[in-house]
Every structure is written in structure tokens, then in C-alpha cells.
Amino acid sequence: MTTVQSTTSSTSAASAATVASQTSAIQDRFLKLLVTQMKNQDPLNPMDNAQVTSQMAQLSTVSGIDKLNATVQALSDSMAAAQSLQAASMIGHAALVPGSEIGLLKGASNAAVELDQAADKVKVTISDSKGNEVRTLQLGAQDAGVIGFKWDGTDNNGTAVADGSYKFSATAVLGGKSSSPTTLSYGMVNSVSLTSGGAMLNMGTLGEVGLGAVRQIL
Hints:
Elements: H1 2-39, H2 49-88, E1 94-98, E2 101-104, E3 109-115, E4 119-127, E5 133-142, E6 145-151, E7 164-174, E8 177-179, E9 182-188, E10 191-195, E11 198-202, E12 208-210, E13 216-217
Antiparallel strand pairs: 1-9, 1-13, 2-7, 3-6, 3-9, 4-5, 4-7, 7-8, 10-11, 11-12
Helix pairs in contact: 1-2
């Protein structure tokens, strides 16, 4: 990732240099035009001092905006480099992200749901790859936020099921009204991709997930 940081820094420096060069060229052209205008002005109707001051102020404003743009671009590049380094440090770690998969291994599994508001009761339904209901978990009343839960790998009859990947959904009820909370899955961060939209985490069957979608890192 050092290469990414170096490349980003070089790009930022090149961008700043380009803006500075363009600003300097604009200033030169403006001054030449102003001098030419003053040389060719009507002696009987000379340019007003206020008019000259106004034009100089406009040049100063344009120059200031260009410098501000260069500063903002440099800051953006710096933040992108920091985000890339942060994302790279997550490779090999498990992360909790939006998803509906729950993996069962040796009779143990966990996942989570995220509630926008408190609920009187929360129900999680786990299904197999064919969509058949395997287990229903009643999580009871919950406050708003991320609520983790565990599954012992048994079905509704108490029989252990095979290890593997299952799907789950959730329903929350508040005051008799039902809603669908966001389901969250644990997955391993395999690699990181740098895109125009920022760093993306490759999480296998969970797909690519933006860094901002991560709820927890293990």
C-alpha cells in the first residue's frame, strides 16, 4: 500500500503544480490585457480608478478560488490514501456488513440485525439454500442499533443440521406495525480494490462492500 500512497501523493503534487501554472498564466494574460487597455484608452475619457480596482479584485477572486480548489483536491487525495491504508489493514479480518448469509460451522454461527428504532419484538428466520425454513429465533424486545445473535445449528425440532451457508431474514414489530430491519453478515476481507468511489472490500460470497458499510471488525 506504500505504492498507493506514493502514487496518490505524486498525483496530488502534479495537480497542485498544474493549477499553479494555470493560475499564473491567467494572471499574465489579465495584466497584459489591462496594460493594453490602459495604453489605448481615450485620453478624454480615461478609465475610472474604481473600474481598474474592480478588475483587479476579480483577478484576485479567481486566483483565490483556484488555490482553494488545489487545496481541496490535495486534501481529497490525502484522505483517499489514508482510506486505502485503513482498508488494506482489514485484509484477513472478519467484518460485519450488510448481507443475508449466515454460515454454520461445527454447530455454531452468528450474525446481526440493525434496527432504525426500538422494537417490541424481533424475529429472525433462517432458511436453507432452497428457501425452506430451518429455524426461527425470537430475540424479544430490542433497542435501536446493531443486535447480534447466535444460532446453535439446530432446526425448529431441535435436530442438528449440516454445516454450510444459510440465508436469514428479520422482522421487527413496534406498536403492532411490522418492519424489515437491515440484516448483517460476517465475512472475511480477502482483498481491497481502489475505485473512483473509494476503497472496496472483496468479501467473497458477500461481494464487494464499501468501507463505509462496515459495522464491526473482528
